[in-house]
Amino acid sequence: MTEAEIPQTENYTVEAILGKGGMGVVYLAFDKRLNRKVAIKCIRHNRANENWVEAVTEEARLLAQINHRNIVHIYDLIDWQGSPALVMEYLQGRTLLDIFRSDELMSGELDLATRLDWLRQIAEGLACAHAKGIIHRDLKAENIMITDEGTVKIMDFGIARHQAQPLHANIHDSQVLPGEFIGSPAALSPEQAMGDRLTTASDIFSFGILAYCLLCGHHPFGDPKNADLVLQGIIYRPPMPVQFLECLGIPDEDAQTLGAEIIACLNKAPGMRPAASALAFTQTIPNKEDYTAMPVPPQNSRGLALTISAILVTATAGLIWLAGQQPEPRRNVYVALPTFTGTDMAEYITEATPEFLRNGIIDALLIDDRHAVIQYDNASKLEEPSQLGLASGANEVLKLTFECKKYWCDGRMARYSGPEWHKTSGDAFSIDLRNGSDSFSAVQWHTVKSGLILNDRHIDNARDPSREYFSLLTEFRKTRYLSGESIKILIDEILTYPSFTPNYHLLVKVATRNFQINNNSGDLKIALELIESNKAELPTSTYLKLIGQCQSALKFYREAEASAEKLLQFGSVFDARLIEADLAIEQGNYQHALDTYTSLIDYAPSENGFYGIAYSAYILGDIALTKRALNSALTLNPNSIPANSLLGSLQLSDGEYTSAIENFNKIVEIIPDEPTLNNLATAYLLSGNRAEAKKQFEKAAQLAPNNPTILYNLGELELLAGNQNNAQIFFEKAIKGLRSLEQSSDASIAIRALSLLGRTEEAKNVLTTTEKNFSGIPDYLFSEAIYYTTIGQPDLAQEKIEMLIALGYTKDWFRFPWYGADCNKAINAQNDHLCSAPINLEGDE
C-alpha cells in the first residue's frame, strides 16, 4: 500500500497528508470517538525497522510526561500497519520558519510585542520539558508552530532524549556515523556540533539563535545556507553584535536586557547559559500590551540590504553583554585575501595560497576574544576596503599585500578602520613561498606581533610574549631541537600567557620530535596536559589540531581519529588531513599516507609534508620519489634532521659510506640523537670499522636504552664477535621492547631476533601476521632473508636478497653470516663473487 492511497485505521478516518519527511509521514485524521481532528505521525512503510519503531515509541514516552500548553500534546500511541504511530493534537497555523521567510520578519507588520510573546511561550515550554529532564535537541524554526490563535507549540521531539539517559540511549544517537551530529546545523549548540555530551543547556543555545533571528533579522553566525560557515561560527566565533531591527523601536533600557539575555544564551560554555526557567523572557520582559509597533518606513529590497549592513556596522558599545558588566569593545574584522605582485613567482603560488595565508591571519585574530571575524561570500566582486567593510558588516578590514621576487616575498599588513576607513600600515616582514607551513606561521605570528591582537588582560605591558617565542623558534629552526632548559622556558611561557597559541604549536613540534628521536613521551604528555587544561583559552580548531597531533604521536589512534573527524566537521580540512596522514604513517598504511601528504603539498608545500612523502615512498620502495621529495624538503630547510637522516640512509644503501658518515656526523654535532647514531654506527659497520660501529651503537643505547632497533644491532655485533650469550641477551631485550607489530620496523626486528634465537615458529607467526602489510619494504625484506636462511629455505632467501639488490643495496649488506652461503648466489647474479669467501667472525678492525 502506498502513501498516496491514504490508509485507514479503526478509530480514525484519515483525510489527507499534512507532511512528509525522510523517515515519516504525518496525516490529518478525524477521531471518530471524540469527534475532533488529530494528526497521526507514522513511519514510512519501507523504513519500519526495529530501530525506528523504538524511536517513535520513545518519542511517545517523552511527550506523555509533559502537559504544557506550549508543547504539542500526544493523545494516543496506536498500531499502524504493524508499526507504532503517534496520535497528536492537530495544529493550524504557521511555523516560525514560514515567518522567517516572509516579509513580516523585517518589517513592522510583525510587532515587537508579538515577537516577545512568542519567545516567552517558547521559553515556558522549554522550562517545562527541562523540569522533566527532557532535552529537545532540535529546537529550530520549523519545529515551532504558531497557531492561528497565537499560541506557540514546540513540536517534533523525535530526537529528544532524557538527560539521565546514557549518551547512546536514544536510537538516533546509535545510528549517527562518526563525525556526524544530532540536530540541524544552523540550530546546533557548540557541544552538539562537537559531538559532546548534552544537557538542557544545549536547547538554551538553540533558543538564543531563534531569539536573535526573530529580533535582529538574521542568523548570529552567518548565512544558514552555508552550513560550514555557520558551524564554524557556532563552535569558534562569537556571535555578531546584537543589533535589533530598527522597526521594532526597542527602548535602550529594554534593549540592554534583551541583548544581555541573548548573548548569555549563546555563551560557548554550557554552564554559563541561563536555565529556561530563569530566562528574562519568562520574567522581566513586559507583557504584550506594553508595546506598540512603530511606523515602518517603506523599503525596497535594495534599501533592505543596506539597512542590514548598517545594522552590522553600527554596533552599540553600550550593550551590556553579561549582567552587570560592561564589555570590552569588540572589533568586527573582515580579512581580505592577500594579493601578490612581482616577478617569476608563478610556480610558487597555487590557487589556494591566498586563502591559506588568510587563514593564518584569522587563526591569530581569534586568539583574542575582542575580535569577531566576519565572513562574506561575495568579496571577490569588491576591491576597496570601504566597500568590503560596508558590504560584509565589518568595522575593520585587514589587507595583506606581497611584493615578490621568485619565492621570496616582502609583505605588509594594512588596517582600514571604519566609518572613515583610515589606513594604518604595519611593519614589513618576509615569507618564503617554497615552505607553505612556515609562510602560514610567519603570517600568523606577524599578526600576533603587530599588536592587532593580544588582549591586555593576557599580557604584561613590560614584555611581549612573542619576543621569547621568536627566540625559541629561531633556536628550533636552526637545529630542529630545543634543550631541556629551553623547553622549561617554553612551558613557563605557556603558563604565563595561556592564550598565546604559537607557543603551543612550538611545544608540540618539539615534544613530537623528542618522542620520535628518544622514544621519550614525557614532553608530549606535558604538552597534552597543558593543552587540555587551557582548552578555554584556545580557539576550538587550534585545540583540536594540537590535541590530534599529540594523540597521533602517542599512538592514541582512536582519540586522534575522533579529533580529525571533529576538525572535518568544523571545516578545518587541511588540519584534519594532516592528522590523517600522520595516523596513516603510525598505523603502517603507507600508501594512504603518501596519497594524503601529496594532496597536502599541492595545497601548502612544507618541509614536513615533503618528508612525509619521502618516508612513505621509501617504505614502499619508490627510491626515485624518495630522493625527489628529500631534495624538495632540503631545499626548504637544508638543516632538516629527518630529511638529512633519510638521505644518509639512502647513501648507505648505495654504498656511499664516506658521504653517509660525513652526513650523519654533521647531524650528531647538532643533536646526538638515537636514530642518527644508529645510522652512523651502521655506516661504520658496513665500511668495515666494527670498533667505531660498536662505540656509536652504545652511545645510541645510552640515549634510548629500550629501543628495539639499537638493542638488536648490538646483538648482531656480539654475534659477529662470537659472543653468543651476549647476543642472546640483546635479542631478548629487543623483543621485549617492541611496541606494536603494526609498525614495519617493529615487525622486522621481531622476525630477525626470533629467527637468530632459534624461535622460528614464533618468527613464522609474526611473518604470517604481518607479511601482507609490509611485503616489499626493504627492512622487511632483510628480515625475510634471515628467516628463510635460518629455516633452511635458501631459494626463498635468495629471492629476497635479489629484490634488495634490485633496490640498490650493495654487496656489503650481505657479508654477514646470518644470510648464509645463499648470498653467494644472489651476488653472483650481479657478477660479483665477494660472498664466496668465508667470513671471519672476529673481524680485523
Automatic annotation (TrEMBL):
Q: Where, in residue numbers, are the TPR repeats?
A: 674-707
- InterPro entries hit by this protein: Kinase-like_dom_sf (IPR011009), Prot_kinase_dom (IPR000719), Protein_kinase_ATP_BS (IPR017441), Ser/Thr_kinase_AS (IPR008271), Ser_Thr_kinase (IPR053235), TPR-like_helical_dom_sf (IPR011990), TPR_rpt (IPR019734)
- Which CDD domains does its entry note? STKc_PknB_like (cd14014)
Q: Sorted alphabetically, which Pfam families does this protein's record hold? A: Pkinase, TPR_12, TPR_8
Cellular component, GO annotation: cytoplasm
- Give any GO molecular function from the UniProt entry: protein kinase activity
Q: Keywords for this entry?
A: ATP-binding, Kinase, Nucleotide-binding, TPR repeat, Transferase
Record SMART domains: S_TKc, TPR
- Summarize where ATP binds, as residue positions: K41
Alphabetized Gene3D superfamilies for the sequence: Phosphorylase Kinase, domain 1, Tetratricopeptide repeat domain, Transferase(Phosphotransferase) domain 1
The reply on keyword Chloroplast is no
Tell me the domain of life: Bacteria
Presence of keyword ATP-binding: yes
Q: Which residues form the Protein kinase domain?
A: 12-285
The cross-references to PANTHER family, in alphabetical order and at most eight, read: MITOGEN-ACTIVATED KINASE KINASE KINASE, SPORULATION-SPECIFIC PROTEIN 1
* Name listed for the protein in its UniProt record: Serine/threonine kinase protein
Q: Which organism is it from?
A: Simiduia agarivorans (strain DSM 21679 / JCM 13881 / BCRC 17597 / SA1)
